[in-house]
Specification:
Shape: globular
Radius of gyration: 25 Å
Structural class: alpha/beta
Distance between the termini: 41 Å
Bound molecules: flavin mononucleotide, iron/sulfur cluster
Largest sheet: 6 strands, mixed
């Protein structure tokens, strides 16, 4: 289908009093730019230049800056998009559940091409990175707000009808939007929730220094991937002097959860929000902060109102606000900032840039956020699960927590299990649990491989299922994707390569170019044009990107390749046509049009083939 030039005026353009009210609500704060853009777009579907220009003027920013920010995030549109914007989650687990066929079906029924808007401006359909619903996929995101789980052919057909009838999304069948928690194994965090305020009271009773000591002695390590010692991070932040006359410290919760296959924070946010907010408030007490932020990924926008309701309840119960639980001088509150579809914003310094209303480009580190974070002030960034864990340490103490798990990996870990198993969902285990045990519990059969920690993590083959989840053995940020023997591990690695290329922020050349080169080589192998040479090049790219990229995204981008080439070599070798270099296209074939035009087919009109 040829691209269609469309002249549309955005429906219901936000202007006048509406725009004024929105800007006033955000205090005309340029640091709220991402939130303002998100809300304006929610109103008028896309962000035309004159809107960006108006915002630049109102916020005292340049148009170039505002355009630079708007163009960075995938959920912002600077060109018209459909009145209905449909994004199909494109993790490998969605594909295993048939998402590609459903995408084709949806596009055919709506008469639209993937990535394009229909000529009448009614609808656009595209793929998105993992939406964090792998336990109930294939998943679909509508208008960057509503999520449809368990997509199937009937739902696709009905969606097409509803769109043609221009039925508002709010009137679509409610059961489509049902997101279930799927908790199959609970331990400390999921199984013993505390009443709101109990952990906070325990923390206040200890005093901030004793609390900090307790968190340090518990040896709690961050649950977001890197595994830095939480108590040490808090202590460094507490000790940092501050860099502006305000001398404010900040508590940030990383609820970006962009790693494909990870959805445990989704469940904590929807069912254990009190625990999260309480953990953040305890952190505020420990480091001397007055303000906290939750950075909620754009794909979890549907959780915003429920989370705000919990915050409000906590304010009314004096668990947030001024003089919390009657403690004079302890003032703390929490805001929620919604992301706009950029995986790199999970990297803590990129997250802070985004919180400040900028492009989510990772900062050069050091200095680290604990000294120079949000608005250049000392800031801690921790994962959702880390804050939840803190509430239990505040109540039961360091020794109790350290008694669970292994010496270097204390406490429990929550896993998001998906893929080829009978019971996908959430499983919490003490650290030190065997991979095989998790496979048994989730009903996995004939398992070929498990990807632990998402594409950035490790791929384990059957002979490694005796290994244990722990920082000293198999570390994880939470994803646990299961692949049985029917799966092609080359295609798994290729999906991950596409993910990294799609999500590279483009700031540094080794990652921007490297991730694209990896995809090209994988495509070449997939097309049956590969050679041993291509596999060697992939190894070289892995080495280069591990050492030369600016942030962890580029560094991890080749992990799945390295693991699958080493452990599932036949999946690659069956695609190799020769041991030597094979070009990705045939020069002789390229000349066929010229031959047709000149009516020639003699030997001289062909390229000589050297044996
Ligand atoms: C590309 C990239 C994406 C990341 N995404 C997340 C994320 O979604 N959630 C998270 O908690 N940490 C993520 N991290 C790790 C954070 O940078 C940071 O280490 C973490 O939030 C610290 O919290 P913790 O100490 O509680 O683990 C990511 C790191 C990188 C390099
Ligand atoms: S490694 Fe990739 S994601 Fe990270 S800064 Fe460089 S280009 Fe951006």
């Amino acid at each position: 289908m040829a691209p269609v030039k469309i002249e549309t005026t955005p429906p219901d353009r936000l202007q006048g009093d509406g725009m004024e009210a929105l800007l006033r609500r955000h205090g005309r704060n340029p640091h709220a730019l991402v939130q303002i853009l998100r809300e304006v777009q929610a109103h008028q579907t896309w962000l035309p230049r004159d809107t960006l220009s108006l915002l630049a003027h109102e916020l005292g920013l340049t148009l170039a800056h505002v355009e630079g920010v708007a163009s960075f995030y995938r959920f912002f549109h600077m060109q018209p998009v459909g009145e209905y914007r449909l994004l199909l989650s494109d993790n490998i687990t969605d594909r295993m559940l048939g998402s590609e066929a459903l995408l084709a079906d949806l596009c055919q029924q709506l008469r639209v091409e993937p990535g394009r808007m229909r000529a009448d401006g009614r609808v656009s359909v595209a793929r998105s990175s993992c939406t964090g619903l792998c336990d109930q996929g294939p998943a679909l995101l509508v208008n960057h707000h509503h999520v449809i789980t368990r997509l199937d052919a009937q739902r696709v057909a009905r969606i097409a009808e509803l769109i043609e009838a221009r039925t508002p999304v709010a009137a679509w069948p409610a059961e489509w939007f049902e997101v279930v928690d799927n908790i199959h194994r609970a331990d400390v965090l999921l199984g013993t929730p505390q009443a709101p305020g109990v952990a906070l009271a325990a923390a206040l009773a200890r005093g901030w220094q004793a609390l900090l000591d307790e968190v340090k002695q518990s040896n709690l390590r961050g649950r977001g991937g890197a595994g830095y010692q939480t108590g040490r991070k808090w202590e460094l932040c507490r000790e940092a002097p501050g860099n502006t006359p305000d001398n404010t410290h900040y508590v940030v919760c990383n609820a970006d959860e962009g790693e494909p296959g990870t959805f445990k924070d989704r469940v904590l946010l929807s069912r254990y929000a009190d625990s999260l907010f309480e953990g953040m408030t305890i952190a505020g007490f420990a480091i001397g902060a007055r303000q906290g932020f939750v950075y909620l990924r754009g794909e979890y926008r549907y959780l915003l109102e429920p989370l705000q309701a919990v915050l409000q309840r906590r304010r009314e119960a004096n668990l947030l606000g001024a003089a919390i639980q009657g403690r004079e001088g302890f003032d703390f509150d929490i805001d929620i900032h919604v992301g706009a579809g950029a995986y790199v914003c999970g990297e803590e310094s990129a997250l802070i840039e985004s919180l400040e209303g900028k492009r989510g480009t990772p900062r050069i580190r050091p200095p680290y956020p604990v000294e120079h974070g949000y608005l250049d002030e000392p800031t801690i960034v921790n994962n959702v699960e880390t804050y939840c864990a803190v509430t239990h340490i505040a109540v039961h103490g360091a020794a109790w927590w350290a008694g669970i798990g292994t010496p270097k990996s204390t406490g429990t870990k929550i896993h998001s299990v998906s893929g080829d198993c009978e019971r996908p969902g959430i499983y919490e285990y003490p650290y030190g649990t065997r991979i095989g045990r998790i496979l048994e519990d989730c009903g996995a059969r004939d398992t070929q491989a498990v990807q632990v920690g998402g594409p950035s993590g490790v791929c384990l083959s059957a002979f490694e299922f005796g290994r244990r989840i722990a920082f000293e053995d198999v570390p994880t940020a939470g994803a646990f994707m299961v692949f049985d023997r029917s799966r092609d591990m080359f295609e798994v690695a290729r999906n991950f390569a596409q993910f990294f290329a799609h999500e590279s922020c483009g700031f540094c050349t080794p990652c921007r170019v490297g991730t694209a080169l990896v995809v090209k080589r994988m495509d070449k192998l997939a097309a049956g044009q590969g050679s041993r040479h291509d596999v060697d090049v992939l190894f070289e790219l892995d080495k280069l990107m591990h050492t030369a990229t600016h942030c962890g995204l580029g560094g991890a981008a080749c992990n799945p390749l390295r693991d699958t080439i080493a452990k599932f070599r036949p999946a690659y070798e069956q695609r190799l046509t020769s041991l030597y270099f094979e070009p990705a296209f045939s020069l002789d074939a390229e000349l066929s049009i010229a031959r047709q035009m000149t009516g020639r087919d003699d030997p001289a009109s062909h390229l000589e083939i050297v044996e």
